[in-house]
Design a protein that fits this description.
Low-confidence stretches: 64-78
Mean pLDDT: 85
Structural class: alpha+beta
Distance between the termini: 66 Å
Strand order of the largest sheet: 17-16-15-18-19
Helix content: 25-40%
Number of helices: 16
């Protein structure tokens, strides 16, 4: 290894060309794999030191050299406060109850050195067991009065950081990854923490999208626990009433409500249930129509419905991507190509156009937008994980368009293959329900309050009739336009890439996109049912403004 310029082998690694700060040369500090993992912590959002989030305090009490001279082993009624030792901090995140601590130690300490409710106490010395992180417990009012002993360090949160950030960092500290990546002293299989090592410990800081995701998970957990507690309470109260008849009626009626609630939640565990209830209306509607065609068994109409759904899906995603590019000021050559083709009357928009737009979002122009909650998700659509499925469905759709049909003998197998590939793609689009599609039917802006009042329709699920919602927003919206609202509650206008109009043929409100030119008319096509309408002057001006048609 002495002859190596750098790199690693099974015996170790070599680091050259770096200046050392004169401190101890920690094996883990320079290990290439561990250094890479430390850098990747920033992928959660950013990284910083633990001292940026917490004041790290030394023990509030240290035993004197005279054994027990300042310690009282008597009951809590004795003068003094309890001294927390390392062993009093349990792996489950709690402190040993005072009544369970037969060997409690008491000491007289000033108020400013005592623990407070909300502090976190950390074992300063602990065994390095596989699968364990740092051992930390939150101090509650029931644990007080108390003071940290000589084998305990204290974390006191700084107020400027929101609670979810602290929760996230504490989860990291309790994980084995923290011990693996932290530059702390380890001796004879034990971890030894100091005020300095804990303050300087590198920890991940979650970004706003990660915080939102964690908050949603906590809401789900609380909701599920609430349902469980409600069912348990009902089961335990069967014989609480004097009247057996009244008890029977109550259990049946309240149990029915709980069962229906659970069945509704369970329906979302299936892919089909999630798509039909949580995906945007144009996608969910076409999925429902496709399933209806397939419900009667293998048929050519069912096979074509699968391929048609795939094209609609590509068209919908491409319009979102094009809108995000326009908002970011990114010019797409694919948009120019569509404008040239449509304006010259050489044909209409095709699935190839939509797939080309989606592919362009994976290029260099979009890399700077990776952190955006909307475009970051859309860029991953039809990615490497579903490349084979995408290619198969594209080829099948092209075969149909060029009149190369599947023969009747091969049709059942082709349907199974097509549906399997489509399911794989839809599983990969689990982010789509988080990009809410909304139609603003009315809007009023209060310039003094810098807030607006919007009436909008949440276009979700497979039914075209949806109720209006009224809410307050902090951005100016455009009445009569479609928007995508991302998980950070930011509104992105999708007009004119997608518009919402009442279809003159079927009389239902539908979502339209650019289809082709016929003579002097610009035609729009519905995502939901394929009906075609003529675009009005207002829509044409919008299409010209974004480059879909020449004119600007």
């Amino acid at each position: 290894m002495m002859k190596m310029e750098g790199g690693r082998t099974k015996y170790g690694f070599v680091v050259r060309g770096e200046s050392f700060d004169g401190g101890p040369i920690n094996f883990g500090a320079y290990h290439p794999a561990l250094r890479t993992l430390r850098l990747e912590l920033a992928d959660f959002g950013s990284t910083g030191t633990l001292g940026e989030l917490y004041d790290v305090l030394p023990p509030g009490h240290r035993f004197s050299s005279r054994s027990g001279s300042d310690i009282d082993h008597r009951s809590q009624a004795a003068r003094g406060v309890r001294v927390l030792r390392g062993r009093d901090i349990l792996r489950n995140g709690t402190v040993v109850d005072t009544e369970d601590d037969d060997d409690a130690q008491l000491a007289d300490v000033p108020l400013d050195r005592r623990l407070r409710a909300g502090d976190f106490v950390v074992r300063a010395i602990t065994s390095n067991r596989p699968g364990d992180g740092l051992i930390i417990a939150e101090v509650t009012s029931e644990d007080l009065p108390a003071v940290a002993g000589s084998s305990v360090l204290v974390l006191r949160r700084k107020a400027q950081h929101p609670g979810p950030v602290h929760d996230f960092v504490l989860s990291y500290l309790r994980s084995p990854r923290c011990v693996e990546l932290s530059l702390v002293d380890q001796l004879h299989g034990a971890i030894r923490l100091t005020v300095s090592s804990l303050s300087n410990m590198l920890v991940p800081h979650p970004d706003s999208e990660m915080i939102t995701a964690l908050a949603h998970l906590q809401q789900v957990k609380n909701k599920m626990q609430g349902w469980q507690n409600e069912a348990s309470g009902l089961l335990n109260s069967v014989f609480d009433e004097r009247s057996a008849k009244a008890a029977r009626t109550r259990i049946i009626e309240q149990g029915r409500t709980l069962r229906q609630r659970a069945e509704e939640a369970d329906s979302l565990t299936s892919l089909s249930g999630r798509i039909r209830k949580r995906f945007p209306l144009p996608v969910a509607y076409r999925w429902r129509a496709m399933e209806a065609e397939l419900s009667g068994g293998p048929s050519r109409a069912g096979y074509e419905a699968i391929l048609g759904f795939f094209e609609v899906l590509a068209a919908y995603l491409a319009q979102l991507a094009a809108a995000m590019a326009a908002h970011a000021g990114i010019q797409l050559q694919e948009i120019d190509d569509i404008a040239s083709k449509v304006s010259a009357g050489r044909g209409g928009t095709t699935m190839g156009d939509w797939l080309a737009i989606l592919e362009s979002t994976k290029g260099k122009k979009f890399r700077a937008l990776d952190d955006d909650a909307a475009i970051g998700e859309i860029r991953n659509a039809f990615g490497p994980r579903v490349a084979e499925a995408r290619a198969w469905l594209k080829a099948a759709r092209n075969d149909k368009a060029h009149e190369r049909p599947v023969d009747d003998v091969q049709l059942p197998a082709a349907i199974l293959t097509a549906k399997r590939h489509l399911d794989q793609i839809m599983e990969d689009l689990s982010f789509l329900p988080d990009l809410s599609l909304r139609f603003v039917s009315d809007f009023q802006w209060d310039d003094l309050a810098k807030s607006g009042r919007a009436s909008y329709e949440e276009l979700v699920g497979d039914h075209p009739v949806v109720p209006a919602v009224v809410g307050t927003v902090n951005t100016i919206l455009e009445k009569g336009s479609l928007y995508i609202v991302d998980p950070l509650d930011r509104w992105h206008r999708i007009r004119p890439f997608l518009i919402r109009e009442r279809c003159p043929e079927c009389k239902t409100w539908s979502t339209f996109y650019l289809d082709r030119r016929i003579g002097a008319e610009t035609m729009l096509k519905s995502l939901e049912h394929g009906h075609v309408i003529s675009a009005g002057p207002h829509v044409i001006r919008g299409l010209e403004a974004v480059g879909y048609l020449p004119g600007y």
